[in-house]
């Protein structure tokens, strides 16, 4: 009997060993070109900055982390808050939340609409949402620029309609960032929402109406609570990439309306302050991890998300 | 009690918002495509229908270069990522939980969790040092970086396919004295093929579309089509950029449509 069990255990541990060999290439590539560099960056954030970019290797310093939130006054050497950085962090959070709310406002009815189509047509509608999702983000941002620039579609249409006399400046404002990110990340909201709404049991809705609920009450008290996991999944899926957005604010927001991604880039370009750039990157990552944790906690409480 | 005509699924205004959303989703893309056929030099005026910007983009050596490099990197990274992802999927499915399985999931999905800009600067830090140490500054860095973030995209459909696969056929093969390798080649692999094809295509599109990581990892003169376009967007653009974007769009849409049809046939 023991021998049989031993043989089974040997076979099992051999199987597990084979499984490690099989997954080795993927793990190795991701370690070398994704996870590992993050650890190196963490080290860099604690080093002194070099004069022409890079760092002074092995020279420990907290300046990078210090300058994320504080700045030293040049004249009297006192400390003050780094207003510019805090403004950018705050703008990133604010814009990401606004983007999430706007995508939700547009995405919820859209997902609902798709879920209510006859079953054989739904696939086509979902596909229509998927196409923009799989096309290049830069191209979609550029496409948005065609609509909102001063001689763009929107301004031309408004002037033609007589609503305005001269173009409204949308490009290079926070509104441009907001519209661009909403446009670019909208599919990320619609898809998980649709997955939730599609499974909605309409007998519950019917029961609500039988009990004299209004449409708004049915929506608020029955539909939304049931599809909440999809709602949260969609919100997180939009919030996270918005927070780390780089291309959209660079193309639409211009230099004055930087977000965290652009602030990071600056430290590695003209700013030549790699430790600070590394520290901001890690701050951004921490913000993302917090959002993810909220999602995971919520998903496990709801018995698995629908993302 | 609701009247027989009362539609319990209806919500006021929802269809309107939904149709507006679809309109808003496609209007900018339509504008971009239409302006690619604009004869006028400037983007603001319509100067009649013309395909001259496509011709000029086609003859632009910088564009040719960038396009070729994009495809080269995408093919290499998609092949490598699909290979690694297939092996990893075989190693992480159809088994009782074992120690390290969660770790593997976390590692494979890691590129999806971290903002691209963060990975991009981390790679810049590491690769710039390696470039100095080794003196090598070829496309290898870009291919390696792309392979890493393509793995999760290739992994998803392959794993999904494996998990829904029937184990009895493989058992039958083993009962008929097939070696494990033969079982894999003659039974598992053919059954897995749709997943692998889907994974490869997702990886290919993902690599082709990448801007941020490429922008930070590339050495001088290693523009891909997206980073070339990003550079052009800094200045006044001509409809040539629209023409390039239109062709790029067409290729992406084509790939996605093929994926959709493959998926549909399978069902």
UniProtKB/TrEMBL annotation, chain A:
GO BP terms in the entry: transmembrane transport
Cell compartment(s), UniProt: Cell membrane
Membrane topology field: Multi-pass membrane protein
Keywords: Cell membrane, Membrane, Transmembrane, Transmembrane helix, Transport
A single Gene Ontology CC term: plasma membrane
Domain called ABC transmembrane type-1: residue spans: 89-295
Domain of life: Bacteria
PROSITE patterns membership: ABC_TM1 (PS50928)
Chief localisation class: membrane
Residues passing through the membrane, by range: 20-46, 95-112, 124-142, 178-197, 218-240, 276-296
Keyword Transport carried by entry: yes
Keyword Acetylation: no
PANTHER family associated with the record: INNER MEMBRANE ABC TRANSPORTER PERMEASE PROTEIN YDCU-RELATED, INNER MEMBRANE ABC TRANSPORTER PERMEASE PROTEIN YDCU-RELATED-RELATED
Record-stated family: Belongs to the binding-protein-dependent transport system permease family. CysTW subfamily.
Name of this chain's protein: ABC transporter permease
Organism: Pseudohoeflea suaedae
From TrEMBL, chain B:
UniProt keyword annotation of Cell membrane present: yes
Localization in the cell: Cell inner membrane; Cell membrane
Transmembrane intervals: 12-37, 66-91, 112-130, 136-156, 191-208, 241-262
Cross-referenced SUPFAM superfamilies: MetI-like
Keyword Ribosomal protein: no
Mode of membrane association: Multi-pass membrane protein
GO-annotated biological processes: transmembrane transport
Keywords (A to Z) from UniProt: Cell inner membrane, Cell membrane, Membrane, Transmembrane, Transmembrane helix, Transport
GO cellular component terms attached to this protein's record: plasma membrane
Record domain ABC transmembrane type-1: where: 67-259
Pfam family, one: BPD_transp_1
Superkingdom of source: Bacteria
InterPro entries: Bact_Polyamine_Transport, MetI-like, MetI-like_sf
Family to which the UniProt record says this protein belongs: Belongs to the binding-protein-dependent transport system permease family. CysTW subfamily.
Function: Required for the activity of the bacterial periplasmic transport system of putrescine and spermidine.
Name of the protein described by the UniProt record: Spermidine/putrescine transport system permease protein PotC
Organism: Pseudohoeflea suaedae
Lineage: Bacteria, Pseudomonadati, Pseudomonadota, Alphaproteobacteria, Hyphomicrobiales
């Amino acid at each position: 009997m023991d021998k049989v069990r031993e043989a089974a255990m040997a076979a099992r541990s051999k199987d597990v060993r084979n499984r490690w060999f099989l997954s080795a290439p993927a793990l190795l590539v991701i370690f070398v070109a994704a996870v590992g560099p993050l650890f190196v960056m963490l080290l860099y954030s604690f080093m002194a900055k070099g004069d022409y970019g890079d760092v002074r290797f092995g020279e420990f310093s907290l300046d990078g982390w210090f300058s994320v939130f504080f700045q030293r006054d040049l004249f009297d050497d006192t400390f003050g808050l780094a207003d510019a950085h805090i403004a950018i962090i705050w703008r990133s959070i604010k814009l990401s939340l606004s983007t999430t709310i706007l995508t939700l406002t547009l995405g919820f009815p859209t997902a609902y609409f798709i879920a209510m189509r006859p079953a054989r047509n739904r696939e086509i509608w979902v596909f229509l949402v998927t196409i923009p999702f799989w096309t290049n983000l830069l191209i979609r941002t550029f496409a948005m620029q065609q609509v909102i620039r001063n001689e763009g579609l929107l301004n031309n249409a408004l002037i033609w309609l007589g609503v305005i006399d001269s173009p409204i400046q949308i490009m290079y404002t926070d509104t441009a960032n907001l519209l661009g990110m909403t446009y670019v990340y909208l599919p990320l909201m619609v898809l998980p929402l649709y997955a939730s709404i599609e499974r909605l049991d309409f007998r519950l809705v019917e029961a609500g109406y039988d009990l004299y609920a209004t449409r708004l009450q049915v929506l608020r008290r029955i539909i939304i609570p049931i599809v909440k996991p999809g709602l949260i999944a969609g919100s997180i899926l939009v919030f996270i990439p918005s927070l780390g957005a780089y291309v959209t604010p660079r193309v639409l927001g211009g230099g004055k309306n930087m977000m965290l991604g652009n602030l990071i880039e600056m430290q590695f370009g003209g700013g030549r302050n790699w430790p600070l750039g590394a520290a901001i990157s890690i701050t951004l990552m921490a913000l993302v991890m917090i959002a993810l944790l909220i999602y995971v906690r919520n998903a496990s409480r709801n018995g698995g998300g629908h993302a | 009690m609701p009247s027989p005509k009362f539609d319990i699924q209806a919500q006021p205004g929802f269809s309107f918002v939904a149709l507006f959303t679809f309109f808003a989703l496609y209007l900018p893309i339509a504008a971009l495509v239409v302006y690619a056929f604009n004869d006028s030099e400037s983007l603001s005026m319509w100067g009649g229908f013309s395909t001259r910007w496509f011709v000029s983009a086609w003859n632009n050596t910088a564009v040719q270069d960038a396009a070729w490099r994009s495809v080269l990197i995408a093919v290499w990274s998609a092949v490598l990522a699909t290979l690694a992802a297939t092996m990893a999927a075989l190693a992480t499915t159809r088994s009782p939980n074992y120690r390290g399985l969660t770790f593997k999931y976390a590692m494979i999905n890691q590129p999806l969790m971290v903002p691209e800009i963060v990975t991009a600067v981390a790679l810049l830090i590491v690769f710039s040092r390696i470039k100095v140490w080794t003196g090598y500054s070829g496309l290898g860095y870009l291919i390696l970086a792309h392979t890493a973030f393509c793995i999760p995209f290739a992994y998803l459909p392959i794993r999904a396919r494996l998990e829904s696969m029937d184990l009895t056929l493989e058992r039958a093969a083993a009962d008929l004295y097939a070696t494990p390798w033969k079982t894999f080649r003659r039974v598992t692999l053919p059954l897995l093929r749709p997943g692998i094809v889907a994974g490869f295509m997702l990886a290919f599109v993902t690599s082709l579309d990448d801007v941020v990581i490429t922008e930070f990892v590339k050495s001088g003169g290693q523009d891909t089509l997206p980073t070339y376009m990003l550079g052009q967007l800094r200045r006044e653009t001509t409809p040539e950029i629209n023409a390039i974007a239109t062709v790029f769009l067409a290729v992406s849409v084509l790939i996605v449509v093929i994926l959709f049809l493959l998926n549909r046939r399978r069902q």
